[in-house]
Amino acid sequence: MTRALSRFALPLALPVTMAVVWWFASSGSTSVYYPPLRDDVRAFADAWLFDQVDSDLVPSMIRFATGFGIAVVLGITMGTALGISARARRALSPVTEFFRAMPIAALVPAGLIMLGAGARMEAALIAFGSTWPILLSTTDGVRATDPAMVEMGRSYGLSRAARVRRVIIPSALPQVFAGLRIALALALQVMIIANMLSGTNGLGYVVLEAQRTFNIPGMWAGILALALLGLTVNLVFVAVEHRVLAWHRGWRAAELRND
Amino acid sequence: MTYGSGPTAVEAIRDVSFSIRPGEFVCIVGPSGCGKTTLLKSIAGLLRPTHGTALIQGRVVDGPPEQLALVFQEYTRSLLPWLTVRRNVELPLKARREKRDECASRTVDALHAVGLSGFEDKYPWQLSGGMQQRAAIARAIAYRPAVLLMDEPFASVDAQTRADLEDLLLRVQQETGVTVVFVTHDIDEAVYLGHRVIVLSGRPTVVRETVDVPMGWPRDQVATKADPRFVELRTHVLRQIHRERTEHPPQTH
Amino acid sequence: MTYGSGPTAVEAIRDVSFSIRPGEFVCIVGPSGCGKTTLLKSIAGLLRPTHGTALIQGRVVDGPPEQLALVFQEYTRSLLPWLTVRRNVELPLKARREKRDECASRTVDALHAVGLSGFEDKYPWQLSGGMQQRAAIARAIAYRPAVLLMDEPFASVDAQTRADLEDLLLRVQQETGVTVVFVTHDIDEAVYLGHRVIVLSGRPTVVRETVDVPMGWPRDQVATKADPRFVELRTHVLRQIHRERTEHPPQTH
Amino acid sequence: MLLLTAMWEAASRFGVVPARDFPPATVILKTFLEDVQTSSLLNSVKESLSAWALGLAIVTVTAVPIGLAVGSLRVLDRATQLLIELVRPIPTVALLPLLILLYGTGLQLALVLVVLAAFWPLLIQTIYGVRDVDPVTLDTGRSYGLGGVRQYWHIVIPSSLPYVATGMRLAATIALVVAIAASLIAGGSGLGAAISNAAGSGASDLMYARILVAGLLGLAVTTVFLRLERRLLRWHHSHREVPA
Amino acid sequence: GSGGADKPPAAAGTSRPAEMTDVGVAASAIAGVANLFLAQESDLFKAENLNVEPDFVKFTPDIVAAVVGGSDAFGHINTATLLQALEANVPIQIVSPGYVGEAAESGIYVAKGSTITSIRDLEGKRIGVAGLKNIQQIAIMATAGEAGADPTKFEFVEIAVPTMVTAVERGQVDAVALPEPFVTLAGGQLTEVVDNMYEGFGSHPLITYYITSDRYAADHPEVVRAFGNAMVEAQDLAQQNPDRVRKAVAGYTEIPEDVVGRMALPSWTTNLQPATLERQAEFLVEYGFLKQMPADLDKLFASAQGQQ
Ligand SMILES: Nc1ncnc2c1ncn2[C@@H]1O[C@H](COP(=O)(O)OP(=O)(O)OP(=O)(O)O)[C@@H](O)[C@H]1O
Ligand SMILES: Nc1ncnc2c1ncn2[C@@H]1O[C@H](COP(=O)(O)OP(=O)(O)OP(=O)(O)O)[C@@H](O)[C@H]1O
Ligand SMILES: [Mg+2]
Ligand SMILES: [Mg+2]
Description:
The complex is a heteropentamer, with one copy of chain A, two copies of chain B, one copy of chain D and one copy of chain E. By secondary structure, chain A is mostly helical. Chain A has one domain: MetI-like (MetI-like fold). Chain A has helices spanning 2-26, 37-84, 86-100, 104-115, 119-143, 147-155, 160-198, 203-212, 216-244, 246-252. Chain D is an all-alpha fold. Chain D has a single domain, classed as MetI-like fold. By secondary structure, chain E is α/β, with parallel strands linked by helices. In chain E, the strands form three sheets. Chain E has a five-stranded mixed β-sheet with strand order 2-1-3-11-4, sandwiched between helices. A five-stranded mixed β-sheet of chain E has the order 8-7-9-6-10. In chain E, helix 6 links the parallel strand 7 (126-129) and strand 8. Chains in contact: A-B, A-C, A-D, A-E, B-C, B-D, C-D, D-E. Chains A and D meet through helix 1, helix 3, helix 4, helix 5 and helix 7 of A and helix 4, helix 5, helix 6, helix 8 and helix 9 of D. Bound molecules: adenosine-5'-triphosphate (ATP) (2 copies) and magnesium ion (2 copies). One magnesium ion (MG) is lined by residues 36-37, 73, 151 of chain B. Chain D: Residues 45-229 form the ABC transmembrane type-1 domain. Chain D: This is ABC transporter permease.
């Protein structure tokens, strides 16, 4: 009972309190920019249940999934390569560090010219924006592998590939997941920026259009939708992580913690 | 073999030359910090010696040779925490593409032999220290290596289990003819197990003496240890070490 | 004391009741995996027992008591890799706000006593296994605890060093009157060091026997071990363990 | 790096990409060399860098302690989990009008944007770092009576330092990107505004020259952080020298 | 000043701030705001005791936010944004007229050899504009409607201005509404199919205004009046001195010298053109970008400077 309470009630407490406070604090608001939460929720219900789901949410999700998928593959493979080989690191890290600091908004024009506006461009931008945290975390995670484990792999004749797959990557996973977690939220943000600078539909576009036409409840509704989308994606992610890193939690808390 | 460079460099091994015949069981004893682990790692090709070479069957070791198994002194850190005990033992077998059945049965046998039946599906960090050490031994045995390097493999198990494991190791060695290099601090154990005992000095490390153990096989915990030759040999080795201690008191670098 | 729950739960300790007088030196022996480490951690307040309680001087242990030092079986992982050996030893002293000079001199003395002079400014990972273990011992000794818990503290050092450390420990105990609980697999060591030896059974773990060691102090490596009472006691304990083994063969959980 | 430059040059010269939009690398380089000598560019760089430095400082002193607390106290972790995940994906650009309403378009806005963006990577890395502390190390501290603040200072923080360092490097570059992008989108007089001005004027060589400046700043920032990290994490096996 | 002909003289210029006041003006960095710089150079602001700091902001809703939030006293926005903001009850009001865009940013261009030759050919085609549901799109729809085409069949896509030429050349869009300096930069690589897309709004329509927030106007009426006065003068100044405009533009943008010398400039008027705004509102309603006609447009001009 108490465990269930702390599992489910505790996480809900803070957001619910904040929503309630917001609801009452804003209920009499006449400010254009801070409409009553009531209006935002109504706009949310009108727009996202389920009017714009097909036209905006689904395309957004597809672009997001594609872009993030590319980032995961690129980030982990390149990150592993950079983590393992000092030579690769010396040769490539100036390039990666250079591109990492590119303000994405400034690259959009170049991207637009090469890829044109639309889904491809947005997926590419999302991939570009969210690869870095994964790459960096993977590199650092790989480098932090306990040398004793690597030596074990080497002495038992595991090939380089087998060592990478069976020893180095699993040991780097906690770091990799930290990177993925950061990248996930970043990808959602880049999706909006991409939408903003090249979009014709999609969640970010809806928010920005609402913004431009001073439909502020619409803007809040879109932000709410975004937050919920982010939350959902994150919960899925956490569930995956919970399974994949079960060993890690056990290992790092290998004690009876009575709570 | 020197770690680091400049004024804080540590010369771990100076001149340690010996050769090991295939199928031989060699025990190495020597004071703490004299370079036994370093030596084993050099033989395993995990460290590249700064001077000299390690040879296996005439070939220079420049990477881990094939069919070699190593039981690390740091057994805890050499077990992969994301794999269960079973998978830890299976890992090198699978990497060598053994048949699945073969992997499974060898793993079960090895874990049974070290007394870990029933713990196959636990993670290493759910085991006690001695159990982890035995899991690492099981991994080495299941691998059926041609060369087996063991770094104080029985340090964390109780006396009774230790005796059982010693006999297990002797049996395996007899059956498979594996070459064993065995580091231990227990002189009785060294004399009981080895064809030869190599006594190392303190740093700068040299071979102080190589003691042949002329006793026959199979050996027996009670009979062998009661053998006057055994008693004489162990006393001899102990005396060597004691003399070493007085001649070269533990020194700073 | 039970780890986990449900069908895969492991009952680490069933019924282990004993009390320790202040200033006593108690040795604990028992088969690998029987729960010795678990027991020490419970005494140290690092684990909360699922059943029963640990008491120190009549007070229930619900967190690490003050003036307690613990030498972990996993010494490698208990040394902080970001501190040099010196700083590792000094850390608990500084945390207790000892004077700076006092810290420094005690640290130097303790490191000297365990034979690590000259390695003060190395990092733990630059030391051999046995040296790391000695560093952990130095940390405990420099701390001058009221209660000292040691979990197989001499497992990785050579026989000669081991004897030296045993005597060091006895001297410290005589001088400071520290209460020591000492886990070991070496029966000789247990009898040599302890006022009492507690023999644990295999799991589910109970106290099989408590053996009083009636020999006087100070003890001496040669004289004490040659004492007929010593030989008798160690044979007795060994026989106990052996019988335990045959009555309760190593079982799965 | 040289290879990439050469490829760019060739692609532009031989018309693989339109030279109007992608001027040859040599042209960009020439413009770059001229541009970096102007005081207006230096000023805009200075402005962006001050937003960056201040923002990163704020992020460091907030995200690390919060991460330590959330990472080690399960109650806090549970209580903040949903909230963090709700807030984190909200893109600051979507809130831009509100932020401008509150903070105007100057340095303050850039600062807020930097903090909002760089806070999360450092927070998440710190939380994961705390969760990766070896329990034996923790127990060592506890048994020797290191409790409360000392436990954090002597055990938890150094242990999670490798993660925090990764987080810092991530946060530093993200902060830089945002410090630059802030003035690109919301105006002001930072490097971003300079880039956007060049783009809006159709001076693509100048635009790329200024993007080059951004990239070089990023390179400089990470180089500095890597140096620092190498000193701080000398002890960690990812930075140890390999035995000879 | 020359503005405020219909106003009582008391409102026009006698009351200015008692001491030198700094005011920020949020605007995009386009040629249309060159008069701000001319006014500053010619001490028109100084004469009104103002010191004007232009603050370049890229997107119009952000300009409105900067004004409403008070970080800038004034903003420069286009009519579409203005009307949409007013419908949402954003508390802003007009201060003075902005510019007429027809020369500088009114052309619709297609790739060389395109089959599109008139505005009617754009039915079913993709037209790149700088912002959707914004001024250019509305102007094109209005003009197309006047010319007998069905503007609801146009497909508008938002596209970054600097990429327009390449986008249309590569066929990513069929036509673009290309502003200066990109027309000059394109140097005849594209074909112009519509010369003046603002035709539908009437002749020489004003497409931007300077605005302030209701709150600022209430708190600092004298500053608002002073700014309006100076700006009305600046309108004439800019309109009559194209060379100084070009010099100013070269100063605050990065447009290459030779392009600045050749590019078409917007024009400035002192006329507030209430009728044009009403007409634009009608189109916005017609195409669904406004829900209904704003109630009292006249009131909007009541306190503004310029000729009604
Ligand atoms: N990574 C390292 N860097 C620097 N010095 C090292 C390193 N590893 C070992 N040494 C030094 O090399 C010497 C030999 O170490 P080694 O681990 O081989 O000893 P050992 O004989 O195995 O000792 P033990 O019996 O205590 O395990 C020691 O003095 C140690 O300080
Ligand atoms: N974190 C854990 N989770 C589950 N079971 C555990 C855990 N730690 C220990 N155990 C189990 O508890 C039992 C006792 O372990 P403990 O480490 O106390 O043994 P020990 O007597 O110290 O053995 P050794 O002499 O091998 O060190 C073992 O059977 C082990 O499998
Ligand atoms: Mg060793
Ligand atoms: Mg134990």
